[in-house]
Model the fold of this input.
Amino acid sequence: MAQMATTLGELKASGWKSWPVKEEIRRNAVVKISAGEPLFDGVMGYEDTVMPQLENAILAGHDVIFLGERGQAKTRIIRSLTGLLDEWMPIVAGSEINDDPYSPVSKHARDLVAEKGDDAPISWVHRSDRYGEKLATPDTSIADLIGEVDPIKVAEGRYLSDELTLHYGLVPRTNRGIFAINEIPDLAERIQVGLLNVLEERDVQVRGYKIRLPLDVILVASANPDDYTNRGRIITPLKDRFGSQIRTHYPLEVETEVAIMRQEARPASVGDVSVRVPDYMEEVIATLSHLARSSSQVNQRSGVSVRLSVSNSEVLAANALRRALRAGETEVVPRVCDLGAIAASTSGKIEIESLEDGREGAILENLVRAAVLTVYKQRVTPDQVRDVIAAFDEGVVAHTGEDIASADEVALLESVPALRAPVSALAGADQSPAALAAAVEFVLEGLHLSKRLNKDASGSRATYRGR
Done:
């Protein structure tokens, strides 16, 4: 900052050039695309679908609307666009609307440059301050977005005809930046009309003032398909002014959902007690979300957000942590018995469609069982457990549950040696008692769901025996 220009004259001498915001973003995007770098960090699963469309929109200089269900990273992508802006941008000092020093548009900036010329003071704005966002609500007004007369400035003695009595709205204050409107169909149609000039003529007009503010702004919006067609709508002239409409989607693969969970979930470890979630349990959580997105008993119009997977992952780890704290264990690995806790984090994020009241719990349990069985069949082959089934048919009985210590569950490996191979394969490099106990429960539950073992459940406890 110390080396940056402080006056208009110094800015001219430095050779700095002014670019429209869309051209600025385009130039920085070209650098990343040419280098083979992703435009944003932390957005997964869109490399071959959404991102190419977004790159095209940026290169074409389009305003963009993202259309997709909840929890599809629409807002994250929009907010990440600021990373394509230059890190610092000069403005006329004191400007409320980020006036370009070379071509100011507000009365304050015009008067200051006219009065002081090359001695006009310059200040610098970071790219994080060049982003504005508004959640569209039915009570949003033109004054919020465009501006209104400031009664306090009038009371100070200025005339109503004085442009300095204006209080600028969110859009003018994001001049030379990015302005986002989330859930734009919820915006009243008469308010949407106020955005028409912003998108096409690139200006705003406030009240009855003879004033025109030629703004330089890129407008980005998001909408939910359900809202897009039913709860609200985008008026045709406004929809026509968006250059590109990009459809987002949920992760297409379980592996992508697992990667998002690992990135977003909060760690559950506390002090000396560490929680390690095995990859097969992460796959169960991700598979549950994928099964819910294809289930006829789940309302697909409302969507099944990726937040479901993240919340379930956090609750699974938290329940395992609580169980270990009560047992006095310092190593924690979530087990099948911990899956019962995710009912609380699941029920509020999906809408069950059932003709019978009270069926929601049973439907959720069936989804969890289906997810466990799906991952089990992918991870464990019938040949690995043939001798295990034979041992249970000969009278072996196993007890599992939250109040069973890891060491007690691992002891089953001594009485059923055939169980060690599939359990060790699931546990991988982590051969701790907690990891082995989790793998033991997973194999037993998989055998039960495959109809090879009987299971008697009571609360969080379960007993497995031969059929």
Q: What stands out?
A: The chain has a mean pLDDT of 88. The CA atoms of residues 72 and 250 lie 6 Å apart. The domain at 8-247 is CATH 3.40.50.300 (Rossmann fold). The first strand starts at residue 64 and ends at 67.
